[in-house]
Write a structure and sequence with these properties.
This protein is α/β, with parallel strands linked by helices. Helix content is 31%, strand content 13%.
């Protein structure tokens, strides 16, 4: 009986440690305003607009469209030498 309680407590501590240590946490993306986006583009830095909407009726000129559900499988298509601004709605 004591062994079963010990194992239960040990399991709870280990699971709680994993959850609280940041392993299960992800950083939330930064949000920018339209004015901040304009300043970024006008500042001369190369920027890729990544449109992650699923079904799109309108396209954003110059944007790369990769639906959010496909993003992980298509990460190799994204440039690493520029800022990426993601658009979703």
């Amino acid at each position: 009986m004591k062994r079963r309680i010990f194992l239960s407590l040990l399991t709870a501590v280990l699971l709680g440690g994993l959850t609280g240590s940041g392993i299960a946490q992800q950083k939330q993306p930064d949000r920018i305003t339209l004015d901040e986006f304009k300043a970024l583009v006008e500042g001369g830095k190369p920027v890729l607009v990544l449109d992650v909407r699923g079904q799109i009726g309108t396209k954003i000129k110059g944007a790369k469209h990769v639906p959010l559900g496909d993003l992980e499988a298509r990460l190799s298509e994204l440039p690493r030498d520029r800022e990426i601004v993601t658009y979703c709605s």
